[in-house]
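User: Structure with adenosine monophosphate, tokens only please.
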Amino acid sequence: MLIFKTIGELTDYLTVRGETDLGFVPTMGALHDGHGSLVRYSVTQHACTICSIYVNPAQFNDAKDYTAYPKTPERDLDFLKSWGCNLVLMPETTLDLSDIKPFNDFDNLNSILEAPDRPGHFEGVCKIVEYLLLSIKPIKAYFGKKDYQQIAVIRRLIEIRKLNVELIECPTCREPSGLAMSSRNRRLNAQGLILAAQIPKLILQAYSQVKQLGYTETERVIKQMCDNLNISLHYAEFRCQSNLNRVTIHTPISETIFLIACTIQGVRLIDNMTANEAIAK
Ligand code: AMP
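Assistant:
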């Protein structure tokens, strides 16, 4: 496994080697098995898998959140090696993204769910993703469904900017407790982890009640349960899987996704399940 500290060194290497069968997994490091599932999947599909580790300041609206973002570079490299990753991009300095034209054709995606709470977040995500895709030119890029809205945004970015890459969506990996794996989980103490494990249970609860109660009442019940648990909730909503629009009474349950965001011990956590995923649990 080779490690590159600058994008120029990586792209020079790719050019010299004539390597084109590239799978790419962008991450912010503090890696866990959720990242591992993306890397391992890419490894089965491509001659060469590249993982980037870069905490992109442009996508953090909260400076404290950026500073507190966990960093475990040596452990990350050990993980990547064990997962079969070939090349790692680990920039040591802030990347200059000024050549990338800001993306602002989000349709509804930059005004719902995560977006109002995190102004500038998706603009920052689009900048770094477009920059990396244009530089590395992978055939496929792998993203986790845990960040469902991010996938929708990147799908739109790829379509509108006509980026020549296939987006591969990978399922959410969970802890034995059901909690979605996340780099942020390591900022929770034992009590926080127990509380956070309620999040997937709330989603399952929503799907177990929705047929009987309907969308609006179920959302209200889940909000009430969060209050009772002292979980500071940002949203807990049924949305259409295809475009993340609000559901109506006519939306079939099978076409919905339930998304939740909350803060526990000062740590913002998100999770989601589609109706099918919830039924399978
Ligand atoms: P991050 O390092 O948090 O930016 O995540 C890098 C990639 O890993 C994104 O595509 C995430 O959606 C994905 N990812 C993060 N957590 C998980 C998880 N628990 N299961 C699957 N993919 C994940």
